[in-house]
Specification:
The chain has 136 residues and is mainly β. Helix content is 12%, strand content 55%. Strand 5 and strand 6 form a beta hairpin.
Length: 136
């Protein structure tokens, strides 16, 4: 019985370590036609999730066809975006902000992440400066 309890405790510890997250506060600067106000970035083993808000003029429309990062000269597409949909028009409401979560391929924590967004109105570059870990 003692062996089973110890085995279960070790298994639980391994599972918790595998699901470890490295959430970091961040700031961003944007060039181009879309502005991202980055809030935090979550580095995981299976993906990197960028949290922020798209900023735009109230009651105007926008569209994002593609979001990608460039790693060692290879472009890697975002897998999902919550808040708006890829290749669909959306509209900024009165506040001019749309909360978004962008799922990127897994990345190693670094100090700067460059994200590129493509829309019918042109391309935008978001430079996300990564801060210290929040310990989540």
């Amino acid at each position: 019985m003692k062996r089973i309890a110890i085995s279960f405790a070790l298994l639980a510890a391994v599972v918790c370590m595998a699901a470890a997250r490295d959430v970091r506060r961040c700031s961003s600067s944007s060039t181009g036609n879309l502005t991202l106000l980055a809030d935090s970035i979550d580095f995981r083993s299976d993906l990197t999730r960028l949290y922020g808000q798209l900023q735009g003029r109230p009651h105007t429309s926008g569209r994002i066809d593609r979001i990608y990062i460039s790693v060692d000269g290879v472009e890697k597409d975002a897998t999902d975006i919550d808040g708006v949909d890829f290749k669909r028009w959306f509209q900024w409401e009165d506040g001019g902000l749309i909360p978004v979560e962008i799922d990127l391929p897994p990345l190693k924590p670094g100090s700067v992440v460059r994200v590129y967004a493509v829309s019918p109105r042109g391309a935008a570059t978001w430079v996300v400066k990564v801060g210290k870990s929040t310990g989540k």
